[in-house]
């Protein structure tokens, strides 16, 4: 359904042009959920905005392709892209408290999409909106449809955003940190709602998160991003059972466990994500990596397909025959 190939996204700044997404590639099948995971600044949201064609004025896709049902969204005229955006591809944004227009009712905002893409009358659109609000678990939808966003809690606003995303029965939903601003109980409810609706409708999903618990619960496949690049991709079971890249392993170790004795320090990753203006040569993780070699500092690694592993790729010299002869066992890093 979706195939992103060698995507490179740049932004013009006062200090020069920076590359926020660099040679990112992945595939997404119908009905599949792909999680993009990584620290802040890893390029997850920019990847999503590139797919949606919603980059800021100073941003552009400099290279690569985004094929959605055999149409390249990068070269598609804006008018045709508008026919896909919000219709076949929808997005749930990160901040429900600011994603809705405060001066328009919930009904007016949700109606706009179905009127534009489905050609419904205002009366038909209102009925469709009430139906959608009920579907996402909002009580008294026939009253809420006439309310303004400030009257709804954060959880209810996010449910309204999910209803908007579902309004035209999209084939792909991109959810950018959909539970970030919500408390833990509401987070669980929203994730269950997204998962159930995706399964019910057969909608494919790209879920952006930094929470590995969310990844374990929601993902079919996982792409780990660091400094604008995908450093590892695998199915969710393989990634959790056999992580390969030192960054992925460090992320796993940083997750608190219920078995951790009281008073023990939580594991952390030393250093910080490099600045886009001063990207290191070679592997972008080498300055923080305990396994870095001279080659890591000088030569940029490409994504390597691991032998005997179905669609498990890793961007690391440790798994190149020239660097580690015959070694493809993640336990060397354990």
From TrEMBL:
<dbReference type="InterPro" id="IPR027417">
    <property type="entry name" value="P-loop_NTPase"/>
</dbReference>
<dbReference type="GO" id="GO:0005886">
    <property type="term" value="C:plasma membrane"/>
</dbReference>
<dbReference type="InterPro" id="IPR017871">
    <property type="entry name" value="ABC_transporter-like_CS"/>
</dbReference>
<dbReference type="InterPro" id="IPR003439">
    <property type="entry name" value="ABC_transporter-like_ATP-bd"/>
</dbReference>
<keyword id="KW-0813">Transport</keyword>
<dbReference type="GO" id="GO:0016887">
    <property type="term" value="F:ATP hydrolysis activity"/>
</dbReference>
<keyword id="KW-1003">Cell membrane</keyword>
<dbReference type="Pfam" id="PF00005">
    <property type="entry name" value="ABC_tran"/>
</dbReference>
<protein>
    <submittedName>
        <fullName>ABC transporter ATP-binding protein</fullName>
    </submittedName>
</protein>
<keyword id="KW-0067">ATP-binding</keyword>
<feature type="domain" description="ABC transporter">
    <location>
        <begin position="2"/>
        <end position="252"/>
    </location>
</feature>
<keyword id="KW-0547">Nucleotide-binding</keyword>
<dbReference type="GO" id="GO:0005524">
    <property type="term" value="F:ATP binding"/>
</dbReference>
<comment type="similarity">
    <text>Belongs to the ABC transporter superfamily.</text>
</comment>
<dbReference type="InterPro" id="IPR050388">
    <property type="entry name" value="ABC_Ni/Peptide_Import"/>
</dbReference>
<dbReference type="GO" id="GO:0015833">
    <property type="term" value="P:peptide transport"/>
</dbReference>
<dbReference type="InterPro" id="IPR013563">
    <property type="entry name" value="Oligopep_ABC_C"/>
</dbReference>
<keyword id="KW-0472">Membrane</keyword>
<dbReference type="InterPro" id="IPR003593">
    <property type="entry name" value="AAA+_ATPase"/>
</dbReference>
<dbReference type="Pfam" id="PF08352">
    <property type="entry name" value="oligo_HPY"/>
</dbReference>
């Amino acid at each position: 359904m979706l195939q992103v190939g060698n995507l490179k996204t740049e932004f013009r700044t006062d200090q020069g042009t920076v590359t926020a997404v660099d040679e990112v590639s992945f595939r997404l099948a119908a009905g599949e959920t792909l999680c993009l995971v990584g620290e802040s600044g890893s390029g997850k949201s920019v990847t999503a905005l590139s797919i949606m064609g919603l980059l800021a004025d100073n941003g552009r896709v400099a290279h690569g392709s985004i094929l959605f049902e055999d149409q390249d969204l990068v070269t598609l005229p804006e008018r045709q892209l508008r026919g896909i955006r919000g219709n076949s591809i929808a997005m749930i944004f990160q901040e429900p408290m600011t994603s809705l227009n405060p001066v328009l009712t919930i009904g007016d905002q949700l109606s706009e999409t179905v009127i534009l893409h489905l050609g419904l009358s205002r009366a038909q659109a209102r009925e469709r909106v009430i139906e959608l609000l009920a579907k996402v678990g909002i009580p008294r939808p026939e009253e809420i449809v006439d309310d303004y966003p400030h009257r709804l809690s954060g959880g209810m606003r996010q449910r309204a955003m999910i209803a908007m995303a579902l309004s035209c029965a999209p084939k792909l939903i991109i959810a950018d940190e959909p539970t970030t601003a919500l408390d833990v109980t509401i987070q669980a409810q929203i994730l269950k709602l997204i998962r159930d609706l995706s399964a019910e409708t057969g909608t494919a999903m790209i879920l952006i998160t930094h929470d590995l618990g969310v990844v374990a619960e929601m993902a079919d496949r996982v792409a780990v991003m660091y400094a604008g690049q995908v450093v590892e991709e695998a199915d969710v079971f393989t990634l959790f059972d056999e992580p390969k890249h030192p960054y992925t392993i460090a992320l796993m170790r940083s997750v608190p466990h219920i078995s951790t004795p009281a008073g023990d320090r939580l594991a952390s990753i030393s250093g910080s994500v490099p600045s886009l203006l001063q990207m290191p040569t070679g592997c972008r993780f080498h300055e923080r990596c305990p396994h870095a070699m001279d080659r890591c500092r000088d030569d940029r690694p490409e994504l390597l397909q691991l032998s005997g592993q179905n669609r498990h790729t890793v961007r690391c010299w440790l798994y190149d025959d020239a660097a580690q002869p015959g070694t493809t066992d993640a336990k060397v890093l354990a």
